[in-house]
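Example with several molecule types.
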Amino acid sequence: MPRRLRHAASVLPVTIACALVLAACGGPPAEVEEAAPDVGIQLFQLPWTSIADECEHTLGPAGFAWVLTSPPQEHIVRDEWWAAYQPVSYLVESRLGTREEFADMVAACDRAGVAVIADAVINHMTGQDEPGQGWAGSAYEHYAYPGIYDDADFHHCGLTGADDIEDYRSREQVQTCELVNLADLDTADAEVRATIRTYLDDLLSLGVAGFRIDAAKHMAAADVAAIVGDLPAGTRILSEVIRGAGEPVTPEEYVEVGEVFEFTYARDLAPPLSNGVFSDPVLDGDRPLHVPAASAVVFVDNHDTERGEAKVTYRDGDAYVIANTLMLADDYGTPVVYSGYAFTDRDAGAAADETGRVRDASCAEATGPREDYADRERTCVQSWPAIRGLLQLRAVAADAPRMPGIDDGDAYGFEREGRAVVAVNVGAQPQTIEIPTTLPSGEYCDVVAGPVGEGSTCEGATVTVSDGRAVFTLAAGTAAGIHLGSRS
Ligand code: AAO
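Resulting structure tokens for the full complex:
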């Protein structure tokens, strides 16, 4: 059984001396312990060479713990981004890079303290009715992948007209019919399991720390468990199981296998951003329709939802920062921040050269949020000052309890007891909100304007804590956060 990562990482004795934190430190240097990083970043359709650079220049310095890549295996040759989700073979050769580049990326990220989680597409092969050749030159037919799988390795469910899933309320359809015509592997079969396992072992040999299991819902949880069950201890398994109303296959079934992407989290996060009504999960006592915190991977959006159900994406700059503030300051689940590219066409692939290879891109000099992205321009969310500041706040918050939220008009905020306080204003007018806190009295720098430390002065507004209250004065549509290490 793979070990699950704790949602709040253990506190490490990392010390921020106040003198390093703010240029104008008053009094004796404060010592602030930080938790080991736990936050991930999904770098959607970014080449391995670029991810290697990001690990060194943005992810490691910002304190990201892990990066989720797009699928690395050979895929069909098409311009759309989703070509990556139609495997032709398990060669690590794709429009995102070669096997060698993948291995170099893992090593570079490792040096930067960033683990690599690979997106493993193991539920199916292609959805192509016509024979073809994959990116690395492998020949294939819809149900024939020479040397890998033949027709007997696939489900032909016989339950629907085209063997496609039509009714998500039927477990049998969901797990034995085809997801949008994708040839559905019979993952109950021992040889199929062994072939998939060989692929996962190969990626582990290249140094990955774990896997996102794509379309896990479409494989019985027992099948996924059998495939990943005896992987080396510590291998992370993140199952994609979209929670669907009235559906029999639930995320809870996959908790035994590892962590699960909890789609309810983003769905619950969005409405208050537009209506200002925050229902506080701490006051409510629990979080309905959420897997246990230690099993949950949470996100504001991902590559599917930014093209679908997500109410808040990079397009909504300020609201996106607010949503990420609430997520990163929260104590539920392991967050994964999302960073992709601007698009108007849902299917449009990332910018590529004339051979189809995705072009390198760097976020080292980027900032945001912005409103003026060109089509296919990278959003570079990992470089936004707010995200970097919030990673610092989260590390200082460590495993401090999340105190009950304060909902005041269009503003809302909460404390991580004695360690950090955040507040947001989703309204169209400026608003002041007071949050009870046990932080020491003093002046604090708002780190949503950017992290403090390494000689940098405070970029943000100052928040005063006195008499057990933090007083935030927030412009319309803004967020702010303070932590023990941001006191001047
Ligand atoms: C492409 C073409 C197809 C063509 C196919 C084969 O678009 O027209 O037939 O090639 O040639 C990606 C793309 C697809 C692409 C595919 C293969 O998104 O467009 O198809 O690559 O190239 C279901 C699965 C879930 C899956 C999601 C897209 O359960 O696993 O569909 N996500 C992953 C990846 C995704 C990828 C694949 C899987 C395939 O993240 O990028 O597809 O490898 C309900 C169900 C969900 C279901 C959705 C969508 O969700 O609960 O299980 O996801 O519907 O059908 C509300 C509801 C919620 C509902 C949700 C929908 O919130 O509460 O129940 O809305 O947004």
